[in-house]
Design goal:
two-stranded antiparallel sheet, alpha+beta, 50s Ribosomal Protein L5, Chain: A, globular, 2 helices
């Protein structure tokens, strides 16, 4: 049975999550070479698929029964795709050139 959930983070929680995602989780993911430009939509928003939730340091792999994946969508105020890419690049996201 598939279950879906949507969580919106703002303010300090959003900043903490993005910092852990950029600096810890993404570099820990297997074969990570940077965020592909195909992950951006025409409004400048980014959608990242995460294959294994155990890339986050809070998750103890020894205690996990099953591994699941999920998607992270970073919504920006950019007017177009190029502005969104540049905005997230300036925020420190490791985007492929």
């Amino acid at each position: 049975m598939t279950i879906g959930a949507k969580i919106t983070l703002r303010g300090r929680r959003m900043n903490d999550f993005l910092e852990r995602l950029i600096n810890i989780a993404l570099p820990r993911s297997r074969d990570f070479q940077g965020i592909d430009l195909k992950s951006f939509d025409n409004q400048g928003n980014l959608t990242l698929p995460i294959r294994e939730h155990i890339i986050f340091p809070e998750v103890s792999p020894e205690k996990v029964r099953f591994i699941f994946g999920f998607e992270i969508t970073v919504v920006t105020t950019a007017k177009n795709r190029e502005e969104g890419i540049e905005l997230l690049r300036l925020l420190g996201f490791p985007i492929k050139k």
